[in-house]
Structure formats: structure tokens, C-alpha cells
Amino acid sequence: MEQMAKQKGIDPAIMRIEVRTLQPEGSTSAVSKTREVTIADLRAEAAPLAALSRHCKGCSANFLKQPFGCFGAIGYPLPAAAEEWLMERLQLANEFGGWSFLQAITDLHYTGELPQKIRQSGAYERKEPVTKTMSRGLFSKKTVDSNQLLHAIVAVGGSLQPSHCMMVLIWLGVVAFDGRVPKAHSDVELVSRLHKLGAEERRTRTSIQIELSPQWQIAGVQNLLRGMYTAWVEGVPLMVDA
Q1: What are the Cα distances from residue 190, in Å, to 39, 104, 204?
Q2: How far is CA 88 from CA 58, 80, 120, in A?
């Protein structure tokens, strides 16, 4: 919130924020009344958590490697640089990840409708989605856009199942199995084996292929992917609120 305030030229010390408290499981059916607070109020409320941060050391879910590093956030509006970075990594149709994404669009109806509504509300920096040509023929070409990719991340419910997280990472070519990133169409067997790995093998035989960007605009989305990878390794859903 401080970062967003500075971007807009607002003094964080005087900015007031509307806060809604959710139930532990994320339910909004029984929320407390919305209240206005300052950043100082939020810091004061969070202060008692400092005594518990020691439990985060060595925790396998702590993908950010910091106190309470199993939790992260991407500030709105979603930076254009982050959206462009995601689409740059999306594999093409002649690669396993791109082919798999095109199949998912057809089978799971990733229309991009909800991300487009979010975009129209001003929550994304780009006014239009990023488009990518997946394949090109003599008289035709196959194109997708970032709304469809974001649909698979922010518009499939409040939690991303481990297997779903892994498929998104495969589409983007950012996960390796025994040092090899699935790319060729013949890697379907490799991907099948990857899904069958036990917990210890997931930790020792796979890796996330992301070099964290010094640009915070991109790092937020990169950390989301790191969280998805950790959820897959641990075999637990990743809770998402968009």
C-alpha cells in the first residue's frame, strides 16, 4: 500500500484504507464490517506476529525465504511489464507447453472474460491484453492473449490445485525435471512422470527456472509462479484472491 501511495504521489502517513476481515478459510460469508484504517494502524495490528516469525525459518512452504514468506501480493494495477514478461515465456504451439495451453483453452474454456472485466475496471496497467502468435501457416495464424493466460491463474476459483499449478508452469517453460525443461511434443512422457513424483523427488529432482528480476513490477508475478511451484512440491493448494 505504501508503494502504491508513493506511485500516486500520496503521503502514506495520511492515506486511509478500507479493510475487510475474512474468515481463516477465506470465506466472505461472515465478514466483519468494513473499517477505515491507516498504514500505521495496520503495522500496529501486525506487530504481535513478529514473535511468531521464528517458526518460518526452515519451513518448506516459505518460498519467499522471509518471515511469513508463504504469503505474497501483487499490487494493482497489474504492471504492464509483468504481463508482458509472462507472455514472453509462454511456449509456442510447436512446443509442448504451448500446445498444452491451446488444448486447455479448448477443453477448459479459458475465454479471458473475467480478466477482461478486471482490466476494464482499471486494475491492469495495460488497456489491452498482450497478444502472442502461437503458430503461423500460409493462410492463417493462431493467436492467444494474456487474458486467456490470466484466466487460468486468477479466474478458476479461490485455490489453485497442485496439478493445475504445475501445468501453468509447464506452459511457461519455467520448471525443469532432472535439469531438463519439457519442450518437445515427445516430452509428454516426461510430463506424465513429473506428475507422478513423490514429495521427496519433487524437491530433489525438479527446480523452478526463474531468475528473480530486480524490477519489483516483474518480481511480484515471478514470486507468484514460485508460490505455484512450492504448492505443487508440497502437494497443497495455493490460495488466491483476485
Answers
A1: 48, 19, 16
A2: 33, 12, 23
37: its cell numbers: 484504517
Cell of 20: 475487510
Helix (H) or strand (E) segment spanning residue 210? none
45 Cβ contact partners less than 8 Å away, ≥ 6 residues apart: none
pLDDT band at residue 139, thresholds of 50, 70 and 90?
confident
Give the model confidence (pLDDT) of 183-199 as tens digits: 988 888 888 888 888 88
Task: Tell me the β-bridge partners of 122.
Answer: none
Segment 123-139 mean pLDDT: 90
The residue ranges of every structural domain in the chain are 2-56, 80-239
Question: Could you tell me which of 107, 161, 98 has the C-alpha nearest to residue 135?
Answer: 98
Residue 181, amino acid: V
- Alpha carbon 95 to its chain's center: 22
Confidence (pTM) = 0.83
Asked if omega into 12 is within 30° of 0 (cis), the reply is no
- The Cα–Cα gap between 236 and 242 comes to 19
